[in-house]
Design goal:
Length: 353
């Protein structure tokens, strides 16, 4: 039962368990009872959830905010306020950037959250959410800029923007169906890409579509290798590398996987920030840089071998979608009660599976 349920996630290698028990029972013949200890390895959630649970006083995504620190793990700032703020800007991709010296040394709250009183709690246990950081964040920026450049470079043929977008949509759909990926995105449009004057391109996609479009763009590059700047190709390759390691690895990364992620993460952040700096110098709106890039930087260079894929909120978000569907169908005055009743009704079937 444990093997089929959530406990499966707690055991790194089930093949080791029988040997462990055999040896344990041999040693403790008189009392073959083991005392099991559990500890919290990590907290997960998007920024909003973590901020509410941990009373973070660091702000992210709030305009005209006097507090410009953007990270609960270190003292990185937005770098747009004053000299002190610029000195700790999160866009500093050097290994000796000033904010790394403060890693996990500051309390990112004014009021102590209840979870912080748990035995063994550490700030490092609060893990950035890969789904929001990459698939609904940085990944959208990288792919938005890539597609905007490809559309301008003639990769999708000559003609009007409308024709190019139609050609791109057709090729994307063909790629998705031949690779067995289900695509939610119906078609690529200027709005979907935020491809407008005075705006940064951003692919407004669902989390899974970000993955599919990433794979498709990499596939297009086989035919049009010259269509994107070398640094952007490096970004696409490096991000695909660390994402596929995380997706295919176990709960804990092996030392080789950990080292690989670190190196690919370094290539990605340095290349992306270099592209963004160049675009800013040339006054071109490409390569949006947002604080999520800094959280991705943390995930890639973390000292622990915890796999962030296991702390991503894919299932949580899917669950929320289902709950909201029920809530929308219920009367507002009794919505919470109806939701719980329906959930209880579904439980026996869920346990049967
Ligand atoms: Zn940080």
């Amino acid at each position: 039962m444990a093997k089929a349920g959530h406990l499966d996630m707690l055991v790194e290698d089930w093949d080791m368990v029988p040997k462990y028990w055999a040896e344990y029972c041999q040693e403790h013949r008189a009392h073959p009872v083991a005392r099991l200890f559990f500890y919290v390895a990590g907290f997960r959630g998007d920024w909003k959830a973590l901020k509410q649970v941990f009373n973070f006083d660091r702000r992210q995504g709030i305009k005209n905010c006097s507090l410009l620190q953007v990270c609960w793990k270190c003292s990185a700032t937005k770098g747009s306020h004053d000299v002190a703020d610029v000195a700790c800007a999160f866009t500093d991709t050097r290994g000796c950037a000033r904010f790394w010296a403060d890693l996990h040394t500051q309390c990112p709250w004014k009021y102590l959250p209840a979870y912080a009183t748990l035995p063994g709690f550490e700030i490092s246990a609060i893990v950035p959410d890969l789904l929001h950081v990459w698939h609904l964040g940085v990944g959208r920026d990288v792919l938005g800029s890539s597609l905007a450049i490809m559309l301008s470079n003639g990769v999708f043929g000559p003609g009007s923007a409308m024709n190019k977008l139609m050609e791109a949509t057709n090729r994307l759909r063909r790629f998705a169906s031949s690779s067995g990926y289900s695509l939610r995105l119906k078609k690529l449009t200027k709005n979907k890409l935020n491809w407008k004057q005075r705006c940064y391109p951003e692919l407004k996609s669902s989390g899974y579509d970000t993955f599919v479009v990433h794979q498709w763009v990499m596939n297009e590059l086989h035919t049009f290798p010259e269509s994107l700047p070398a640094d952007l190709i490096a970004c696409l390759w490096a991000s695909n590398h660390f994402l596929s390691i995380w997706t295919n690895a176990g709960r804990w990364l092996s030392p080789a996987e950990h080292a690989n992620v670190k190196e690919a993460g370094k290539i990605f952040t340095q290349a992306y920030c270099a592209l963004a700096k160049k675009a800013a110098r040339d006054q071109v709106r490409l390569y949006k840089v947002r604080p999520k890039l800094h959280l991705l930087h943390h995930l890639a260079r973390q000292e622990t071998r915890k796999n962030p894929h296991y702390f991503a909120t894919w299932m949580d978000e899917d669950g929320l979608k289902k709950l909201v569907k029920v809530l929308k169908l219920s009367d507002a005055r009794s919505a919470e009660k109806r939701l719980l009743q329906r959930w209880l009704l579904g439980l026996p079937d869920a346990w049967k599976q």
